[in-house]
Amino acid sequence: MVAAALVLGSCSSGERGQGLYIQRFFGECTSDYGTATDIAKAEGECGIITTMINAFRQADPAAKVSQNVVAWPGYSQLTAQLAARQPPDLVTMHTGVIPDYAGKGLLEPVEPYLQAAGLSPAMFTPASRQGVTWQGRMYGLPWDTHGGLWHINTALFAKAGLMKDGKPILPRSPEELLSQGRQFRARTGKPYLLQSLVADPAGAARILYTYMMAQGAPVFTDPRHIDLDNPKGQAVANLFRQVTAEGIGTSNMDTPAAIAAFMSGEGGVYPTGTWMIGQFETEEKTTGRPLFKSYAVQPFPQLYAKNVMFVSGHSWVVPKRERTAAERQAIVDFFRFMVARNGDWARTGHLPAVQSVIDGPAFLGLPHRSDIAIVAKIGRALPDGVLRQNAVEGLVGEEMAAAMTGQKPVRRALADADRRVNEFLAEVP
């Protein structure tokens, strides 16, 4: 049984009964995977996670697993469950949301569960471990790391003269970004960057966060105050404003339009996340499609002195409540089971949280993964005390997109972002 180090949660009243109650996002696909247990045959986020939970239920019937699939991201429902003191036992959570719940004492630290499962915090990648850490404690089982990548049409790069030894030539400075973008545009007649700047604030925020961090800028001066309107933030915004103004990058696409344009061969690079690798790999393998044998993926290129990039991730958290010994043991068993299968999750495109999986031949043997494995090392999250990170990202992204498209002057957009975020955080209890 679980060691005595597992302290009971204190925010529950009454007994909820036996059994491991899991609440997750990643979609509902019981029509295809409702009884599937062969994880190796599952595909996509929903298929793989559904099959994993089915396999755990089969392997550990004593856990008495029940599952609730929530509409993404599910935090309103979780908050209501916590208020009613009847939360699930395990919940999928974006790492940027953990401070909002851990800071109010609503999550259990997971080190005791890890210890009971024979798992060490040191086994996880630096990026994934940082993502679940708040005030020195781990408040989630790291599950993956995801961040911005450059998805590249290598046929168009070859036409533009930007391939060498079978690899795309990427810029290594702001000046090279502009010069290579101009060269691509001149030789192909197509935009170098397919930017989804309409209704996709996360994409614009990723650019600003990443390239401020790459210059050594802290982004936040303290957890309650953001600082974007400074020379380093202005340098990033001005650079990408010039990219858009010159037509090197698009300015009028939303996410579906940018995805469709990339798959149709209408641009060189689609800067988006790890989650698109699977869909683009399918295009790469399909005869007659523009990306057939013409797809590569790389981390955001290093344009400044530091090779770092902004990342986030998914985790499994344990909401605080009283639990029976059997329920606590089921959490331990689930953690052990899932960590052993973290490599299967890598087929979604997200980077595994377990360092040995990142370094192992199975992961590195997957298409393109050796090119992006470094993200697990260079990835950086926002400071762990920053609350409401999703909402903050939305505000920052709106203003950065306005700067990039010329809807606002750069200085005004960044100043507005600072003001809006700082006023918002000042009102957060």
UniProtKB/TrEMBL annotation:
Subcellular location field: Periplasm
Signal peptide: none
Protein name: Extracellular solute-binding protein
Family in the record: Belongs to the bacterial solute-binding protein 1 family.
PANTHER family given in the database record: ARABINOSE-BINDING PROTEIN-RELATED (PTHR43649), BLR3389 PROTEIN (PTHR43649:SF14)
Pfam families the record matches: SBP_bac_1
Species lineage: Bacteria, Pseudomonadati, Pseudomonadota, Alphaproteobacteria, Sphingomonadales
